[in-house]
Amino acid sequence: MIREAWYAITPQSSTVEWWKIGWFPRSIPKHCFCIWLTFCEAHRTLNKMVRWGLVPINRCEFICGQGESIDHFFFECTFIARIWNHFLLLYRFRRRPSGWHVESEWCSQRLKGNDFKSWLTKLTLAAVIYHSWQERNNRLYNNFVRSFECLVSGIGDNVVDKCRGLTQVDDNPTNRELLSNWNLQPILLTL
Ligand SMILES: [Zn+2]
């Protein structure tokens, strides 16, 4: 159903630079739908809801003292940036997360390849975005709060589950390190 919705409302054009970041082989559909909403800036962020008169105050749910917007949430917010940065460092990307307009441009350029590292980072980015937005909704509507550690663990579980479904990965030092980071066996590597 998500896939059908995706195709129904997405421009079917190769000129959409972020297409390969939002939809790729062996992705998690509900995560990809969420990242697609992010690329389209379709999330009902609090700055929009204040403008529409739905809520009185724009205050980020992660108690950072800032207002919520697409740029703030992904990934200027110190709490969410810490989650994304945790995985960037795990994959040896040494950069400081920025707002969505800068971050999405970096992702579109840096992750458009078909190598294992690009696939793994795209998978993780989609999981970070999905879980972060779910956490925001739980805090805002259900008064339910998870810690940084809990969120990172949940994202990691999704990534590892997907990696376990792989039948082979090219054998090179980078891929060996990436698998080792997730405590996965090198049996996945091609001989
Ligand atoms: Zn914030």
TrEMBL record:
- What InterPro entries is this protein classified in? RVT-Znf (IPR026960)
Name the domain of life. Eukaryota
Domain Reverse transcriptase zinc-binding intervals: 2-84
The name of this protein is: Zf-RVT domain-containing protein
Its organism's taxonomic lineage begins at: Eukaryota, Viridiplantae, Streptophyta, Embryophyta, Tracheophyta
